[in-house]
């Protein structure tokens, strides 16, 4: 950690547990070359995209099978040592940081796409498969998986954080697109939640309980997902606006009209500038909506006509079309890299990303004041939004040598979250709670609901070994 | 119970707990005229559409507010007496039967639609609101709620059983359409799960945990739902086929082609005959698909063309169109009354309804053999299916004076469920587990997953007072 340390209340509570040598020996004996205590490996597993610095895990196990995961968890359970599942390390909220010490359980080598059931629009895969890998694997069957967080995240991590992305406005999030899971429990037992049936009323919804549980209730070892047919016709467009309010109000009206838009993404002018530099584009550096339409050729035409008319009413400039798949891909890659474009705009910075999501009618109220406040505070930031869902991210770009910037950013974040909660929204649309939003979760859900979550955690993980110290403290 | 009693293993385990007079006195004092121990009232609350006969609850409380529910649960908790939430009593699986005795907590008077947020496509309401009442309330805002079990069920009951119905193929089930709940916990505390935001990654998904928990984890006292815009264009059609296989294969192909069909319902020829008699229709008494298409006029036209061509390939007769809203309504009301049409076809019968749901490619395998087996057994039945979802119901119509019919029907049901599980499906698509499918749930989910459910139950309801004896035994 840099010498300039922010106030205590902005730092995660680090309570390292002792890891007995006997456990390390047992893991070494069981896993051989799949086990490491090398500092470089540990450090690589002790960093994510959050702004926190925490000591690395004590050891790393590279699992190659469900049996590996079960055995690793069983050994850790025996010694009451934390187990932290690790995918590609793209968490924004400190999910994989070893705040209680312990063993990082890296599942990135469990990266097989096991069964593509094109005839049922389902796929079963291992948790280390990444979203881009999955889409490559199912493309030739005429299918795709729509959930697309910015990073090329692992599907296991996407399940664990209940991820979404740019297509969620039409296709839903991981909540709607996971059919079933195989999970290793805190005692090392292997269970299955759900089947390949599209719907079920058979008992508690363990699948949805595991999705979004951030590694605290079980380690996901197999995933069955819904797939979607590649749309017959696709059109993508960018539209520029004179003001953020115009872009936001256009979005609100598109959603309220019930247009089945596939993507509806906002960037403010300064973020467009960052993206232009990072991705060598020349988009006009004013508030911008990036949109995509999926459907039959006729259906897409109808959607486009409706949306053009709405955008026109709010002064939106003529649509710029991405005509070829390559142009579309370039546009969306640029959007997905907005986070990295933001980081690049201030070399050496750390990012605190906000993640509120509000009912669509409240989006202007939620978003516009946050921008005014950030401008007034003078903190550099980027602003992107899955605005069709009412979800947006301010990414505050902080100089780690200027701790007062962090304090100011956290104050902005708190104002922003409290506003979203007042408007009927949530503190996290898609990134999860991790280390950073525990207080916000209490404010949002209330003590009673958090106590219920804690009760479930204690029932399923009585020794608190599964990714302890995340979501809530015990 | 009739003198002809089926074998023990087909009967629910009834373990009545003593209800202390002190509790009845306390409930009488707190609830006055909202409290009853009259046998007629108790009996009305001790019956549903299942085939079980169980002694009625010891008393009934008519709650009119969340505070009423909280107070009733607190008093029952104090005396460790079961509380069984009651909506309209349309459960098919014995959910509301007092197998451990206790108090029926009737929420049907909590029937206010509280807030219609048309601008966000959400509504907040009390659990006693029924689906028809809800649709009346939101119609003038140009909105509707698509989930439609056969009965005019309460929304509370629909949440509790994770209900679906004819529109689920396009709009999803209660799993996808509940945004947030207010719940009274086993200790009588009031908590909220979720917000009005469309998506969230803020902590465990308590909403989805409560949806489908069958009253065993909390009493639902307020519900926030997604609404959908009334489609611009609607077309409904019935198509007759020479064989069940033709109708089923047409369905499979419609779904595999990705047609966004709104409803796709199957009736076999004998069930069409029952429906004709009950609803005074004259549909051809051969296997029938009832379909509905929602969208823009152009979009509906495209869907219809695709589906007509698929049906034609399987020998489907020319489409019969329901041209007016009244004709459509008549057709769907007839479909919704298929259950009652079946009951009417054999006066005095009891029904055992199956509810398996399989991946769409396995639907023919799952369905056709069941029909052959039922025909061979000579048990009267009806057959309806939300086949677009891979979900169908055999309703065995049993003479209560012929216990061997029940034994035969349960044997058919067991064969049918085991087949669905082998095909990657679930024992319950939408009715829930209740008393009747506990063994099937164990077969489907496995001992480990059921143990996890049990662990959650014990954590959230340590004295097992919330609808005990349902889903699993403790």
Task: Walk me through what this model shows.
- The structure is a homodimer of 474-residue chains.
- The first copy, chain A, has 474 residues and is an alpha+beta fold.
- Chain A folds into three domains: 8-106, Uridine Diphospho-n-acetylenolpyruvylglucosamine Reductase, domain 3 (2-Layer Sandwich); 113-229, Uridine Diphospho-n-acetylenolpyruvylglucosamine Reductase, domain 3 (2-Layer Sandwich), CATH 3.30.465.10; 233-422, Vanillyl-alcohol Oxidase, Chain A, domain 3 (3-Layer(aba) Sandwich), CATH 3.40.462.
- Helix content of chain A is 38%, strand content 19%.
- The first copy, chain A, has 16 helices and 18 strands.
- Chain A has helices spanning 21-31, 39-44, 66-79, 131-139, 155-161, 168-171, 174-177, 206-210, 244-256, 269-279, 297-313, 325-336, 338-345, 363-377, 403-422, 438-460; strands spanning 35-36, 59-62, 83-86, 103-106, 113-117, 122-125, 143-144, 178-184, 190-193, 219-226, 228-229, 233-240, 263-267, 288-295, 320-322, 350-353, 381-386, 391-398.
- The first copy, chain A, has a seven-stranded antiparallel β-sheet with strand order 15-12-14-13-17-18-16, with helices on both faces. A five-stranded antiparallel β-sheet of chain A has the order 5-6-10-8-9.
- The longest helix of chain A is centred in the C-terminal third of the chain and has 23 residues, at 438-460.
- Chain A is globular and about 70 Å long.
- The interface between A and B is large, with 87 and 87 residues.
């Amino acid at each position: 950690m840099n010498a300039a340390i922010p106030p205590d209340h902005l730092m995660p509570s680090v309570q390292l547990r002792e890891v007995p040598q006997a456990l390390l020996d047992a893991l070494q004996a069981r896993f051989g070359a799949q086990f490491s205590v090398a500092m470089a490996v540990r450090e690589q597993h002790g960093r994510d995209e959050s702004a926190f610095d925490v000591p690395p895990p004590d050891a790393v196990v590279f699992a190659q099978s469900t049996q590996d995961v079960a055995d690793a968890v069983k050994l850790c359970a025996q010694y009451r040592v934390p187990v932290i599942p690790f995918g590609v390390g793209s968490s924004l909220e400190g999910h994989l940081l070893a705040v209680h010490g312990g063993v990082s359980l890296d599942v990135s080598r469990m990266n097989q796409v096991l069964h593509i059931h094109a005839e049922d629009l389902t796929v079963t895969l291992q948790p280390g498969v990444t979203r881009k890998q999955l889409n490559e694997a199912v493309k030739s069957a005429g299918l795709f998986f729509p959930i697309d967080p910015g990073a090329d995240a692992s599907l296991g991590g996407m399940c664990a954080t209940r991820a979404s992305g740019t297509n969620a406005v039409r296709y839903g999030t991981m909540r709607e697109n996971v059919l079933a899971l195989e999970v290793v429990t805190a005692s090392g037992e292997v269970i299955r939640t759900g089947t390949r049936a599209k719907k079920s009323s058979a008992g508690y919804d363990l699948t949805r309980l595991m999705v979004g549980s951030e590694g605290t209730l079980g380690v996901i070892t197999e995933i069955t997902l819904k797939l979607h047919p590649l749309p017959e016709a696709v059109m993508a467009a960018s539209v520029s606006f004179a003001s953020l309010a115009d872009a936001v109000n256009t979005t609100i009206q598109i959603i309220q009209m019930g247009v089945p838009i596939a993507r509806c993404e906002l960037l403010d002018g300064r973020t467009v500038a960052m993206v232009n530099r990072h991705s060598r584009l020349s988009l006009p550096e004013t508030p911008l909506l990036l949109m995509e339409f999926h459907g039959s050729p006729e259906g897409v035409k109808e959607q486009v006509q409706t949306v053009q008319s709405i955008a026109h009413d709010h002064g939106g400039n003529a649509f710029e079309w991405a005509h070829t798949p390559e142009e579309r891909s370039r546009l969306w890659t640029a959007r997905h890299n907005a986070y990295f474009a933001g980081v690049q705009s201030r070399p050496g910075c750390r990012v605190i990303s906000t993640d509120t999501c509000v009912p669509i009618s409240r989006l202007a109220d939620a978003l516009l004041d946050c921008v005014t406040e950030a401008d007034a505070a003078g903190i550099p930031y980027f602003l992107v939004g899955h605005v069709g869902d009412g979800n947006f991210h301010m990414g505050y770009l902080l100089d780690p040598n200027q701790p007062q910037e962090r304090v100011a950013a956290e104050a902005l974040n708190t104002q922003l979250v409290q506003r979203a909660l007042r408007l009927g929204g949530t503190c996290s649309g898609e990134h999860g709670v991790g280390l950073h939003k525990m207080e916000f979760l209490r404010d949002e859900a209330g003590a009673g609901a958090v106590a219920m979550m804690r009760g479930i955690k204690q029932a399923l993980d009585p020794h608190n070994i599964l990714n302890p110290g995340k979501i809530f403290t015990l």
